[in-house]
Amino acid sequence: xxxxxxxxxxxxxxxxxxxxxxxxxxxxxxxxxxxxxxxxxxxxxxxxxxxxxxxxxxxxxxxxxxxxxxxxxxxxxxxxxxxxxxxxxxxxxxxxxxxxxxxxxxxxxxxxxxxxxxxxxxxxxxxxxxxxxxxxxxxxxxxxxxxxxxxxxxxxxxxxxxxxxxxxxxxxxxxxxxxxxxxxxxxxxxxxxxxxxxxxxxxxxxxxxxxxxxxxxxxxxxxxxxxxxxxxxxxxxxxxxxxxxxxxxxxxxxxxxxxxxxxxxxxxxxxxxxxxxxxxxxxxxxxxxxxxxxxxxxxxxxxxxxxxxxxxxxxxxxxxxxxxxxxxxxxx
Length: 332
Ligand SMILES: Nc1nc2c(ncn2[C@@H]2O[C@H](COP(=O)(O)OP(=O)(O)OP(=O)(O)O)[C@@H](O)[C@H]2O)c(=O)[nH]1
Ligand SMILES: [Mg+2]
Ligand SMILES: [Zn+2]
Known about the structure:
alpha/beta, CATH 2.40.50.140, Rossmann fold, Ribonucleotide Reductase Protein R1, domain 1, 3 domains, two-stranded antiparallel sheet, 13 strands, binds guanosine-5'-triphosphate, binds magnesium ion, binds zinc ion
């Protein structure tokens, strides 16, 4: 029996089983949306059943005497966002995703390594990804982060050159929201990024009537505080679903084995076809086409491989090697 299949529900409940989707999850407490659009507070049946936001489930509604419904079964997951948690284990965060919306901003100080790792997570899980730099108002002339404008613009240009749709927005103006909504109009997207970059503010902007809590003190540098504490799914008016997720301080996608780290970086994946050895990890190996390309000009005027991206790859590779060494033998 798979770990998602607890004992079957009592016979009298089987008739009442229906399919739904988890639109909010906090531990074992979840909210399930039935196919008629109504929402039902539920909990997982048995202590091991942990539904995720986005999960497709079979559940039974609550009753007048016990308003909490029960989720009996989680249907097979695909399109999963997962991370390596502090204990070095793979932890799944949201399911049935189509794409990641990777958000950064001039404040809190952007960590493009985290952006790169989310983009790697998307590629490793065969999800699409878009990149959003928000709080553009702070970059404008006279804005408090005008000095960072060039650097953030060039990061966006580099992501666009890699093929990612990029958006520069601020939640106080309308510009740029229609193209972003169009990019999210199919499937399920999830907002990810550092805490305080403005994910919930974007969500409130894209979903009329949504009241996702946002940090009240603008520009607060209290990075330890996470305003959003659990993932929640909303429906976009122009189509598509959007999940708001809690911000992070750091993030690492699970890489099944070190040689797969390159799959997370489109340009490294492409360049590695030219390496002398098929299992090249692009470190010190002779005849490595990836290392040879670092900082070289590309035909389009950019760089064949940005030194920062190569550094991101090397850091993820190091994490993958460490995780492999920590893994107990015989376990995935
Ligand atoms: N100047 C400016 N401030 C913004 C913008 N978008 C969001 N903010 C502010 O940034 C702060 C953080 O916004 P949130 O939406 O709560 O950020 P979050 O990414 O959801 O944070 P967590 O839930 O902790 O991960 C709030 O004070 C917002 O008012 C923007 O476009 N411009
Ligand atoms: Mg939030
Ligand atoms: Zn190589």
